Amino acid sequence: RGNRRATFLLSMDDYALYFIGLLVVLCAAVVLLSHAYLEHTEDRRADYYLLLLLATLGATVLVASTHFASLLLGLEILSVSLYGLIAYPQTRPTATEAALKYLVLAASTAAFMLMGMAFVYAASGSMALGDLSAFAAVAPGWSRVLYFGGLTLLLTGIGFKLAVAPFHLWTPDVYQGAPAPVTAFVATVSKGAVFALLLRYADQVDPGGGGPLVIVLTVIAFASMAIGNLLALLQENVKRLLAYSSISHLGYLLVALLAGGAAGRTAAAFYLAAYTLTMVTAFGIVTFLSGREGESETLGDYRGLGRRRPWVAGVFTIALLSLAGIPITAGFIGKFFLIRAGVGETQWALVVTLALTSTIGLFYYLRVIVTMYGAGVTEHSAASGAKAGVGPDERSGQDVPQVVPSGGRLAAAVLAVLTIALLALGVYPDGLLRLIERAASTLG
Predict the structure, then answer these.
(1) What is the DSSP string of 77-132?
(2) Which of 207, 294, 306, 342 could tie 373 with a disulfide, CB 3.0–4.6 Å?
(3) How do residues 147-180 score in pLDDT, each as one tens digit?
(4) How many angstroms separate the CA atoms of 245 and 337, rounded?
(5) Where are the alpha helices (DSSP H) in 139-208?
(6) For position 4, what pLDDT does the model report?
């Protein structure tokens, strides 16, 4: 009334709708994969699905946020739901430990972000994210120092949620301890929502201007690509390997973020879609092979999988090749766009680092593939076959498939659809690219 101006907390533009659609697809995949997992491990299911939907609601609020209030609301809905999801198997101490670690992480994240919001508000007098660029151009003296100090704290909180270096230490422990489908959710929906928020407002602080925040983001990108890939080389646990791999992939995404412009936004949005679909496929295989005896998470659990379950090994192989950026997969097209965006803005050091560290990544992805198709089945891999629904035939001594429950058939169908999507995007990405370009154009 009068001179009062309405405050909008959410923006349902094409950009938000694109990412909301992506997050809903990822959530649906996790829900369907969880059905088979919970048949094996849990009797209580309704509260699990409720938490999963609430976490997705928080993620969708994040990608549409235009105000600090909605940003914090979405972040907390997402984080609080994830506490319960990670600790859901009450009989597994590792899940409780992972949830406690994530709780400490989320509390630290909230503290950094709240203090950052306070500093930005004290300097600018506004809590609307769209006002960042206008104030940054005219901020005087100490207000400018306070403003950039607040942005640094906000960036620290986002760094924790994305698990980029040096904020990555929580990632492998939480990924390993959480239930496999929840790990898939954290690696895709949670990180995807936070990065989509960062991508929306990156240009608000002039990422191409060479300011202090750009220097910090550049260092983070270098560190994430190097540390993620080098530490993944040392892992014997598949979930930890994928955790460190995810750190490097967020570093790749920062290359496009720093490139900026329409090309950078398009490359980042496409790679984020390719990465999240690939990750949910990879963790979907871990979920599919898990049972009451435990989760199939060590490399030994996958030894001889190509002989025992060739189609499962084939799906996992395609997912790993997509993460490595091999042609005719979505990951290859995504990396091509990242490199093109970086070259277009002469980000040569970042592009060279991306190429070199991707070569390192190829080694540990191929290590898993070679393990799956290696000759010989040990006692350990035979035990993992029991988790995957394969048992010994008493007459021949050969492993033969057991009856797959309905949840397992549903999960198999989901994995098949995801695999087709990865290959389709690797061969014909034009349809998704047009959608992304239309969505990114709303950012100006």
Answers:
(1) HHHHHHHHHHT--TT-HHHHHHHHHHHHHHHHHHHHHHHHHHHHHHHHS--BGGGH
(2) 306
(3) 888 888 999 999 999 999 898 888 899 999 999 9
(4) 19
(5) 141-162, 171-177, 180-185, 191-201
(6) 56
